[in-house]
Design a protein that fits this description.
7-stranded parallel beta sheet; 10 strands; 14 helices; cytoplasm; 42% helix; CofD; Rossmann fold; CofD-like_dom_sf; 3-stranded antiparallel beta sheet; LPPG:FO 2-phospho-L-lactate transferase activity; alpha/beta; Putative gluconeogenesis factor
Amino acid sequence: MPGVSVAALGGGHGLFASLAALRRVVGDLTAVVTVADNGGSSGRLRGEFGVLPPGDLRMALAALCGDDDWGRTWAEVLQHRFAGDGEMRGHVVGNMLIVGLWELLGDHVPALDWVGRLLGAQGRVLPMAVTPMDITADVRLGGPEDGELTHVRGQVEVASTAGRIVNIQLDPPDPDACPEAVATVRAADWVVLGPGSWYTSVIPHLMVPDLRRAIVESTARVVVVLNLADQPGETAGYGPEDHLDALLEHAPDLRIDTVVADEGAVGDSGGVRAWVASHGARLVLADVAVGDGSPRHDPAKLAGVFERLMG
């Protein structure tokens, strides 16, 4: 589909799956990536150099590598994590490369474009914002209605605190959106949200004011790819319709055109069908799971769904 432009929004393993699928069928593909990670190698580099966390950006670049020897090799190099017992232990090659280019070039976007050229990436990777930020959340401990409300700060902490997330915020609340990301969303034919960690990878895009405005005002058709299961720490006990409700709770003016869900994950539940019907959207049910029992999307199966949907 060389004439179709797609902006895929998210982060981590969920965005990796959607990008690995979309690059197979879309000629004009851009990833807009969450940049609020505060853990692992990304968190250490962020703390030491005062930069955006590079980890989710690195994963998106790896997902856009081709299936030939060059692409597979560079994807492995980019994702390689150092072992040993010294200060380098746990750092990832791709994170170091991205931060090094940021220092050399002094600009996030050209640096990421250079990494993409090196890899032969089949698409472009942009940060959702150029301002370092933290995710915070109000989390209700205990019962869903009457439990104690606590405030949690940091992506890792939000994703791992036991309880039910009531809402999330960004600090600062109005980070500077990446101008290229805003322009890409406004010009796209399709915007894809999900799958991924719902509150720390998907919803944050709707909390950046200029980016959210671009999503809402764009003529692009918005596709939400639902997760295959709930996620402990973020969406424990959520059904498919609860994930969709969470999106609209944080962005009531969001217009969802299509919802893609795994037919096995939805099962006989009528909740998501009723939700889609009441919001004037389209439901696409398909087998998109890897088939080994784990809640992971199969890029090849997901590519087939995208091809039928966008073709």
